[in-house]
Amino acid sequence: MDSPQFLTGQFLLAMPGIGDPRFERAVIAMCAHDSEGALGIGIGETIEGLGLHDLLRQFDIAPGDVPDVDVHFGGPVEPRRGFVIHSTDWGGQDTIDVAGRWSLSGTIDVLKAIAEGAGPAQWLVALGYAGWGEGQLDSELTRHGWFNTPGDTELLYGVAAEDRWERAFAAAGIDPRLLSNSTGRA
User: Fold this and answer.
1) Structure pTM?
2) Which CATH number covers residue 125?
3) Which of 7, 9, 5, 6 has the alpha carbon at shortest distance from 156?
């Protein structure tokens, strides 16, 4: 069980003016966070021109009746490595449970199951991930840049990628239009 200071199963939202264009308006589903580091999958942006059918064909998987949904930009680390965030009703050879809220799979078996109509009930596909080494995210959380919110699965499966950032802040009672990207001086 994760300690309360760890963010596994939560969302990490980029604050305005985070200072890294790769994370501007980022929404990251935190899939692992402990004293050794952290791993999250970006869910707030899709990869233009890349649909699920294209990805399946690269693995010689017939798309079947699965919708040709957008593939998410999971993060800047290993951008050709695929991940599927999905409901907890399916598990494969490498599936990990994420705080009982969702599951994460990173092998081809989940894509095959989805294409065959035998996979998880809810899912999203991403390429790449966001990763932090030992203590790195903990240090970043002490400075301006990130805000964490509870991992509500409605944000994963019921909200369009481009709306997730604003909706996640709104769910926390914050209007992101009122956030400043700089601090004042007294």
Assistant:
1) 0.92
2) 3.40.1740.10
3) 9
